[in-house]
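Progress note, sequence design subtask.
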C-alpha cells in the first residue's frame, strides 16, 4: 500500500488522497467536452456552416428536442455529483472517459488543423464513423458510472441515441447529392 507523508509522524493512504482529490470535480465532466466547442464557435468553419442542400427528414423534428433535453441533462447533472474512484467499475469508467475524451480531442484537432471543413466533423477517424458524435456519447455513458448517478445514465442513453441519429442523418445529407430538377 502506498502512503504519503502527512507530517508529525502521521501517514496518509494515497488511495484516499486520490479519492479526496476527485471529490467535487463533477463539473469538469461537461467542461472537458465543451472546451473544443468554444473554439469551434470562435473559429468558424472555412466554408461557413451553410445547411446541406437536402432537407432534414421529418423525424428530426421530434428527435431534435429529445436530443436537446438529453444534452442539457448530461451537461447539468455531472455538476451535482462528484467523481469516484472507489470501485473497479469507477476506475475503469475513468479510463474509458479519458480514452473517449482523447479521441474526441483528436477529432477536433483534425478539424482545426486540416482547414476546418464541415466534412471533417462527421468523417471517419481511425475507422470510427462520426467520431465527434460517438466519443462524447461514450464519455458521458462512462461518466454515469464514474459519477454513479442513475439519472445521468438515463440522460446519456437518451442523448446518445438522439445525437447519433441526428448526426448520422446530417452526415448522410452532407454526402448525398441534391435531387436533379
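Output:
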Amino acid at each position: 500500500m502506498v502512503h504519503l507523508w502527512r507530517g508529525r509522524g502521521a501517514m496518509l493512504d494515497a488511495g484516499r488522497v486520490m479519492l479526496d482529490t476527485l471529490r467535487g470535480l463533477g463539473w469538469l465532466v461537461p467542461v472537458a467536452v465543451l472546451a473544443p466547442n468554444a473554439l469551434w464557435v470562435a473559429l468558424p468553419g472555412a466554408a461557413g456552416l451553410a445547411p446541406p442542400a437536402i432537407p432534414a427528414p421529418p423525424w428530426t423534428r421530434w428527435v431534435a428536442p429529445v436530443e436537446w433535453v438529453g444534452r442539457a441533462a448530461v451537461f447539468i447533472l455531472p455538476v451535482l455529483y462528484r467523481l469516484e474512484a472507489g470501485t473497479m467499475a469507477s476506475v475503469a469508467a475513468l479510463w474509458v472517459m479519458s480514452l473517449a475524451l482523447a479521441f474526441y480531442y483528436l477529432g477536433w484537432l483534425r478539424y482545426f488543423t486540416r482547414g476546418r471543413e464541415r466534412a471533417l466533423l462527421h468523417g471517419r477517424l481511425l475507422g470510427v464513423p462520426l467520431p465527434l458524435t460517438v466519443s462524447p456519447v461514450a464519455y458521458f455513458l462512462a461518466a454515469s458510472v464514474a459519477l454513479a448517478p442513475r439519472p445521468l445514465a438515463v440522460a446519456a442513453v437518451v442523448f446518445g441515441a438522439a445525437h447519433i441519429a441526428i448526426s448520422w442523418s446530417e452526415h448522410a445529407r452532407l454526402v448525398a447529392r441534391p435531387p436533379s430538377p
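Residues 24-175 form one domain. Work on this subtask will continue into the next period as scheduled.
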